[in-house]
Design a protein that fits this description.
three-stranded antiparallel β-sheet, 12 helices, alpha+beta, 30% helix, globular, 331 residues
Protein backbone atom coordinates (compact mmCIF):
# COMPACT_ATOMS: atom_id res chain seq x y z
CA UNK A 1 0.00 0.00 0.00
CA UNK A 2 1.13 3.58 -0.59
CA UNK A 3 0.95 6.47 1.84
CA UNK A 4 2.35 9.99 2.09
CA UNK A 5 4.93 9.92 4.91
CA UNK A 6 8.43 11.46 4.67
CA UNK A 7 7.79 11.66 0.92
CA UNK A 8 4.77 11.19 -1.34
CA UNK A 9 3.48 7.70 -2.14
CA UNK A 10 5.92 5.76 0.01
CA UNK A 11 5.56 1.98 -0.03
CA UNK A 12 4.25 0.22 3.09
CA UNK A 13 3.15 -3.36 3.72
CA UNK A 14 -0.27 -4.49 4.88
CA UNK A 15 -0.96 -7.84 6.54
CA UNK A 16 -4.03 -9.98 7.07
CA UNK A 17 -2.79 -11.11 10.51
CA UNK A 18 -0.67 -9.36 13.14
CA UNK A 19 1.47 -12.54 13.43
CA UNK A 20 2.53 -12.12 9.79
CA UNK A 21 3.63 -8.57 10.54
CA UNK A 22 5.76 -9.71 13.49
CA UNK A 23 7.42 -12.47 11.46
CA UNK A 24 8.14 -10.19 8.50
CA UNK A 25 9.62 -7.57 10.81
CA UNK A 26 12.02 -10.15 12.30
CA UNK A 27 12.95 -11.44 8.85
CA UNK A 28 13.62 -7.88 7.72
CA UNK A 29 16.10 -7.29 10.57
CA UNK A 30 17.81 -10.66 10.06
CA UNK A 31 18.24 -10.23 6.32
CA UNK A 32 19.56 -6.65 6.39
CA UNK A 33 23.33 -6.42 6.82
CA UNK A 34 23.24 -3.07 8.62
CA UNK A 35 21.48 -4.72 11.57
CA UNK A 36 23.82 -7.74 11.69
CA UNK A 37 25.84 -6.40 14.65
CA UNK A 38 22.72 -6.45 16.83
CA UNK A 39 22.53 -10.24 16.71
CA UNK A 40 25.82 -10.45 18.63
CA UNK A 41 23.99 -8.96 21.63
CA UNK A 42 22.28 -11.07 24.27
CA UNK A 43 18.62 -11.48 23.26
CA UNK A 44 17.61 -10.04 26.64
CA UNK A 45 19.69 -6.88 26.19
CA UNK A 46 16.74 -4.81 25.02
CA UNK A 47 18.47 -1.52 25.83
CA UNK A 48 21.40 -2.48 23.58
CA UNK A 49 18.93 -3.39 20.84
CA UNK A 50 16.98 -0.15 21.21
CA UNK A 51 20.07 2.04 20.96
CA UNK A 52 21.52 -0.19 18.23
CA UNK A 53 18.40 0.12 16.07
CA UNK A 54 18.56 3.89 16.38
CA UNK A 55 22.29 3.87 15.53
CA UNK A 56 21.71 1.67 12.48
CA UNK A 57 19.20 4.17 11.13
CA UNK A 58 16.00 2.21 11.76
CA UNK A 59 14.27 5.32 13.14
CA UNK A 60 15.04 9.01 12.74
CA UNK A 61 13.33 10.19 15.93
CA UNK A 62 16.05 11.24 18.37
CA UNK A 63 13.95 9.83 21.23
CA UNK A 64 13.19 6.48 19.58
CA UNK A 65 15.46 4.44 21.88
CA UNK A 66 14.19 6.06 25.08
CA UNK A 67 10.54 5.66 24.04
CA UNK A 68 11.04 1.98 23.20
CA UNK A 69 12.93 1.22 26.43
CA UNK A 70 10.31 3.00 28.54
CA UNK A 71 7.51 0.91 26.99
CA UNK A 72 9.42 -2.31 27.62
CA UNK A 73 10.10 -1.38 31.26
CA UNK A 74 6.64 -0.01 32.04
CA UNK A 75 4.85 -3.10 30.73
CA UNK A 76 7.51 -5.72 31.67
CA UNK A 77 7.68 -6.84 28.05
CA UNK A 78 11.09 -8.47 28.64
CA UNK A 79 9.19 -11.25 30.45
CA UNK A 80 8.00 -12.60 27.09
CA UNK A 81 11.58 -12.92 25.87
CA UNK A 82 12.63 -14.68 29.07
CA UNK A 83 9.74 -17.13 28.76
CA UNK A 84 10.55 -17.83 25.10
CA UNK A 85 14.23 -18.44 25.99
CA UNK A 86 13.30 -20.80 28.82
CA UNK A 87 14.70 -18.45 31.45
CA UNK A 88 11.35 -17.82 33.12
CA UNK A 89 8.30 -20.00 33.70
CA UNK A 90 5.08 -18.73 32.24
CA UNK A 91 3.51 -19.15 35.67
CA UNK A 92 5.91 -16.50 37.00
CA UNK A 93 4.47 -13.98 34.55
CA UNK A 94 1.17 -12.79 36.01
CA UNK A 95 -1.73 -12.64 33.56
CA UNK A 96 -5.22 -11.27 33.88
CA UNK A 97 -8.19 -13.62 34.19
CA UNK A 98 -11.72 -13.38 32.88
CA UNK A 99 -12.70 -11.70 36.16
CA UNK A 100 -10.34 -8.78 35.58
CA UNK A 101 -12.44 -5.71 34.74
CA UNK A 102 -12.09 -4.65 31.11
CA UNK A 103 -10.27 -7.82 30.04
CA UNK A 104 -12.04 -10.42 27.91
CA UNK A 105 -11.71 -14.15 28.59
CA UNK A 106 -8.43 -15.77 27.50
CA UNK A 107 -6.84 -12.40 26.80
CA UNK A 108 -3.46 -12.38 28.59
CA UNK A 109 -2.04 -9.09 29.75
CA UNK A 110 0.87 -8.24 31.99
CA UNK A 111 -0.13 -7.04 35.47
CA UNK A 112 2.20 -4.30 36.68
CA UNK A 113 2.73 -4.39 40.45
CA UNK A 114 2.78 -1.05 42.24
CA UNK A 115 1.85 0.80 39.08
CA UNK A 116 1.71 4.15 40.86
CA UNK A 117 5.39 3.80 41.78
CA UNK A 118 6.37 3.40 38.11
CA UNK A 119 4.49 6.37 36.71
CA UNK A 120 6.43 9.60 36.12
CA UNK A 121 5.78 12.54 38.38
CA UNK A 122 2.84 14.76 37.54
CA UNK A 123 3.60 16.94 34.53
CA UNK A 124 3.73 20.71 35.00
CA UNK A 125 0.87 22.85 33.72
CA UNK A 126 1.95 25.14 30.88
CA UNK A 127 0.16 28.25 29.50
CA UNK A 128 -2.05 27.80 26.44
CA UNK A 129 -0.23 30.57 24.57
CA UNK A 130 3.50 30.95 23.95
CA UNK A 131 5.81 31.70 26.88
CA UNK A 132 9.53 31.78 27.73
CA UNK A 133 11.87 29.08 29.06
CA UNK A 134 15.48 30.15 29.62
CA UNK A 135 14.79 33.28 27.57
CA UNK A 136 13.55 31.37 24.52
CA UNK A 137 10.00 31.46 23.16
CA UNK A 138 8.18 28.12 23.45
CA UNK A 139 4.73 26.53 23.30
CA UNK A 140 3.30 23.32 24.74
CA UNK A 141 1.80 21.26 21.92
CA UNK A 142 -0.50 18.26 22.25
CA UNK A 143 0.11 14.86 20.69
CA UNK A 144 -0.82 14.58 16.99
CA UNK A 145 -0.45 18.33 16.48
CA UNK A 146 0.39 18.76 12.79
CA UNK A 147 3.74 20.39 12.11
CA UNK A 148 2.14 22.22 9.19
CA UNK A 149 -0.30 23.94 11.58
CA UNK A 150 2.64 25.22 13.65
CA UNK A 151 4.45 26.35 10.51
CA UNK A 152 1.43 28.35 9.37
CA UNK A 153 0.61 29.79 12.79
CA UNK A 154 4.13 30.90 13.77
CA UNK A 155 5.53 31.39 10.25
CA UNK A 156 8.60 29.27 10.91
CA UNK A 157 9.72 26.60 8.44
CA UNK A 158 9.39 22.96 9.46
CA UNK A 159 13.13 22.35 9.13
CA UNK A 160 13.90 25.24 11.50
CA UNK A 161 11.36 23.99 14.02
CA UNK A 162 13.02 20.55 14.03
CA UNK A 163 16.43 22.21 14.37
CA UNK A 164 15.27 24.38 17.28
CA UNK A 165 13.92 21.27 19.04
CA UNK A 166 16.86 18.91 18.38
CA UNK A 167 14.74 16.66 16.18
CA UNK A 168 15.84 14.60 13.19
CA UNK A 169 12.37 13.46 12.13
CA UNK A 170 10.17 14.23 9.18
CA UNK A 171 6.85 13.23 10.70
CA UNK A 172 3.60 14.93 9.77
CA UNK A 173 2.63 15.40 13.41
CA UNK A 174 4.07 15.23 16.94
CA UNK A 175 4.34 11.69 18.32
CA UNK A 176 3.49 12.84 21.83
CA UNK A 177 2.72 16.03 23.71
CA UNK A 178 5.82 18.13 24.24
CA UNK A 179 7.38 21.55 24.48
CA UNK A 180 8.12 23.03 21.06
CA UNK A 181 10.64 25.87 20.91
CA UNK A 182 10.06 28.65 18.40
CA UNK A 183 13.65 29.86 18.59
CA UNK A 184 17.09 28.33 19.13
CA UNK A 185 17.68 27.13 22.69
CA UNK A 186 20.62 28.36 24.77
CA UNK A 187 23.90 26.49 25.25
CA UNK A 188 23.61 26.78 29.02
CA UNK A 189 20.67 26.63 31.41
CA UNK A 190 19.06 29.34 33.49
CA UNK A 191 20.04 27.52 36.70
CA UNK A 192 23.29 25.70 37.56
CA UNK A 193 21.81 22.21 38.03
CA UNK A 194 18.88 19.92 37.29
CA UNK A 195 17.99 16.90 39.43
CA UNK A 196 16.69 14.02 37.32
CA UNK A 197 13.09 13.13 38.20
CA UNK A 198 11.32 9.82 37.71
CA UNK A 199 10.36 9.31 34.07
CA UNK A 200 12.72 11.98 32.68
CA UNK A 201 15.31 11.39 29.98
CA UNK A 202 17.93 13.73 28.52
CA UNK A 203 15.70 14.98 25.71
CA UNK A 204 12.85 15.82 28.09
CA UNK A 205 15.33 17.62 30.38
CA UNK A 206 16.85 19.58 27.50
CA UNK A 207 13.37 20.78 26.55
CA UNK A 208 12.17 21.55 30.07
CA UNK A 209 15.36 23.53 30.82
CA UNK A 210 15.56 25.22 27.42
CA UNK A 211 19.10 23.98 26.77
CA UNK A 212 20.39 22.40 23.56
CA UNK A 213 20.51 18.61 23.64
CA UNK A 214 24.14 18.43 22.46
CA UNK A 215 25.18 21.01 25.05
CA UNK A 216 23.55 18.97 27.81
CA UNK A 217 25.50 15.91 26.67
CA UNK A 218 28.79 17.80 26.52
CA UNK A 219 28.40 19.54 29.88
CA UNK A 220 27.77 16.20 31.59
CA UNK A 221 30.30 14.08 29.65
CA UNK A 222 27.55 11.88 28.26
CA UNK A 223 26.99 10.09 24.95
CA UNK A 224 23.70 9.98 23.09
CA UNK A 225 22.98 6.39 24.14
CA UNK A 226 23.47 7.11 27.87
CA UNK A 227 20.70 8.17 30.25
CA UNK A 228 21.32 9.50 33.80
CA UNK A 229 19.84 7.71 36.80
CA UNK A 230 16.92 9.18 38.71
CA UNK A 231 18.01 11.54 41.47
CA UNK A 232 21.41 12.47 40.04
CA UNK A 233 22.38 16.10 39.48
CA UNK A 234 23.10 17.32 35.96
CA UNK A 235 25.22 20.39 35.23
CA UNK A 236 23.56 23.09 33.12
CA UNK A 237 26.09 25.95 33.17
CA UNK A 238 29.54 24.41 33.70
CA UNK A 239 31.21 21.16 32.68
CA UNK A 240 30.67 18.41 35.24
CA UNK A 241 33.82 17.05 36.94
CA UNK A 242 32.74 13.54 35.85
CA UNK A 243 29.83 11.91 34.14
CA UNK A 244 26.78 11.14 36.30
CA UNK A 245 25.60 7.74 37.41
CA UNK A 246 23.67 6.06 34.59
CA UNK A 247 20.23 4.52 34.81
CA UNK A 248 21.66 1.24 33.49
CA UNK A 249 24.25 0.94 36.25
CA UNK A 250 23.65 -0.97 39.47
CA UNK A 251 23.56 1.51 42.35
CA UNK A 252 24.51 -1.07 44.97
CA UNK A 253 27.62 -2.12 43.05
CA UNK A 254 28.73 1.50 42.67
CA UNK A 255 28.23 2.28 46.36
CA UNK A 256 30.20 -0.84 47.30
CA UNK A 257 33.02 -0.18 44.83
CA UNK A 258 32.98 3.40 43.48
CA UNK A 259 36.29 2.96 41.68
CA UNK A 260 34.92 0.44 39.23
CA UNK A 261 33.39 3.13 36.99
CA UNK A 262 35.71 5.25 34.93
CA UNK A 263 34.87 8.90 35.41
CA UNK A 264 32.40 8.33 38.22
CA UNK A 265 32.96 10.52 41.27
CA UNK A 266 31.05 9.32 44.35
CA UNK A 267 29.25 11.85 46.56
CA UNK A 268 30.91 13.36 49.65
CA UNK A 269 32.06 10.54 51.95
CA UNK A 270 29.87 9.44 54.81
CA UNK A 271 30.77 7.09 57.66
CA UNK A 272 31.46 3.77 55.93
CA UNK A 273 29.17 0.88 56.83
CA UNK A 274 30.77 -2.22 58.25
CA UNK A 275 31.88 -4.48 55.40
CA UNK A 276 30.77 -8.05 55.06
CA UNK A 277 34.31 -9.21 55.94
CA UNK A 278 34.46 -7.05 59.06
CA UNK A 279 31.06 -8.05 60.39
CA UNK A 280 30.91 -10.87 62.86
CA UNK A 281 27.26 -11.46 61.95
CA UNK A 282 26.85 -10.97 58.16
CA UNK A 283 23.49 -9.50 57.24
CA UNK A 284 23.54 -10.68 53.64
CA UNK A 285 24.49 -13.59 51.44
CA UNK A 286 26.19 -12.41 48.26
CA UNK A 287 26.46 -14.07 44.85
CA UNK A 288 28.78 -13.13 41.97
CA UNK A 289 27.15 -13.58 38.58
CA UNK A 290 28.93 -16.18 36.42
CA UNK A 291 28.87 -16.58 32.65
CA UNK A 292 25.46 -17.56 31.20
CA UNK A 293 23.69 -17.06 34.55
CA UNK A 294 20.32 -15.30 34.59
CA UNK A 295 18.41 -13.57 37.35
CA UNK A 296 15.74 -16.25 37.12
CA UNK A 297 18.31 -19.06 37.47
CA UNK A 298 19.94 -17.35 40.45
CA UNK A 299 16.55 -16.92 42.14
CA UNK A 300 15.89 -20.67 41.83
CA UNK A 301 19.37 -21.53 43.12
CA UNK A 302 18.80 -19.62 46.37
CA UNK A 303 15.09 -20.28 46.75
CA UNK A 304 13.95 -16.66 46.40
CA UNK A 305 11.77 -15.01 43.80
CA UNK A 306 12.91 -12.61 41.11
CA UNK A 307 11.03 -9.66 42.62
CA UNK A 308 13.02 -10.03 45.86
CA UNK A 309 16.32 -9.93 43.98
CA UNK A 310 15.21 -6.85 42.05
CA UNK A 311 14.16 -5.08 45.28
CA UNK A 312 17.24 -6.04 47.34
CA UNK A 313 19.66 -5.00 44.59
CA UNK A 314 17.68 -1.99 43.32
CA UNK A 315 17.84 -3.33 39.75
CA UNK A 316 16.43 -1.34 36.86
CA UNK A 317 15.86 -4.44 34.72
CA UNK A 318 16.09 -8.24 34.81
CA UNK A 319 19.43 -8.21 32.98
CA UNK A 320 22.56 -9.07 35.00
CA UNK A 321 26.19 -8.96 33.91
CA UNK A 322 29.14 -11.26 34.53
CA UNK A 323 30.98 -10.33 37.74
CA UNK A 324 28.06 -8.38 39.20
CA UNK A 325 27.59 -8.87 42.95
CA UNK A 326 24.04 -9.58 44.06
CA UNK A 327 22.38 -9.86 47.45
CA UNK A 328 20.63 -13.25 47.27
CA UNK A 329 19.56 -13.69 50.92
CA UNK A 330 19.00 -11.50 53.97
CA UNK A 331 19.58 -12.82 57.48
Amino acid sequence: VYHDDDARDECFRRYARSEDSYMDHSDFLKSNQRYAFLFALDPTDYEGWAYGLRKAGYATNIRYSQILIALIKNYHLEDYSLIALGRMNESDHMVATASTPGISRNQPIAIIPDLKEELPEEAPVYPESDFLINGTRVIFAKANTAWLSLVEKYRISKSRLWDFNDLEVDDDALMSEQLVFLGRKRKIGATPFHTVKRGENLYVISQSEGIRYESLLQLNRLKGDQEPAQGVRLYLQATAPSRPLLASENRQAIISNPGQLKGYTPPAPTPAPQTFEQSAQPLFTMHTVAEKETLYGISKKYGVNVDQLVEWNKLDSLTVRIGQSLIVAKK
